[in-house]
């Protein structure tokens, strides 16, 4: 019986030791040094491009976010951060961006808009 308890205890410790600890930022997609190609473009492609694509005139007055320059300008000079973080009006019809994704956009800006 003691051997059985020992085996169960060691198995339990092994399971606990193999668990990974991830922060909310890691799970949510935040990275310390984001780049356009690796982090920002995929975010815009998945969250913004259904409305903000080049030549969209069918859905009203949408800004076009389709490449490095247009996306950078939308964050640097536009209302993108306000719309996804403060007012949470974007993405229209979708769930608000997670805190980690908003933080990722801000980090991209703060680290100099790496391509």
Description of the structure:
This protein is mainly alpha-helical and 115 residues long. Helices cover 54% and strands 0% of the residues. It has six helices and no strands. Helix 3 (36-47) crosses helix 6 (99-110). The chain is globular. The model is unreliable at 10-18 (pLDDT under 50).
Q: Which labels suit this protein?
A:
115 residues, mainly alpha
What topology does this entry show?
Layout: H1 2-18, H2 24-28, H3 36-47, H4 68-76, H5 80-86, H6 99-110
Helix pairs in contact: 3-6
Q: Spell out the helices and strands N to C.
A: HHHHHH
Strand content: under 5%
Tally of contiguous helical segments? 6
**Range of helix content:** 40-55%
Largest sheet: none
Number of strands: 0
In angstroms, what separates the terminal alpha carbons? 62 Å
> What spatial form do the alpha-carbon principal axes imply?
globular
Mean pLDDT: 80
Low confidence ranges: 10-18
Provide the gyration radius in Å. 21 Å
How is this structure best summarized?
The chain is built from six helices and no strands. The chain is mainly α. The longest helix has 17 residues, at 2-18.
């Amino acid at each position: 019986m003691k051997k059985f308890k020992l085996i169960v205890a060691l198995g339990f410790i092994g399971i606990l030791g193999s668990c990974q600890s991830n922060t909310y930022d890691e799970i949510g997609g935040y990275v310390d040094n984001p780049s356009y190609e690796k982090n920002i473009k995929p975010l815009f492609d998945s969250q913004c491009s259904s409305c903000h694509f080049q030549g969209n005139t069918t859905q009203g007055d949408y800004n076009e976010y389709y490449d490095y320059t247009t996306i950078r300008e939308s964050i640097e000079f536009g209302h993108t951060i306000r719309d996804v973080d403060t007012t949470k009006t974007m993405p229209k019809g979708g769930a608000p961006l997670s805190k980690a994704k908003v933080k990722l956009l801000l980090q991209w800006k703060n680290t100099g808009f790496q391509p």
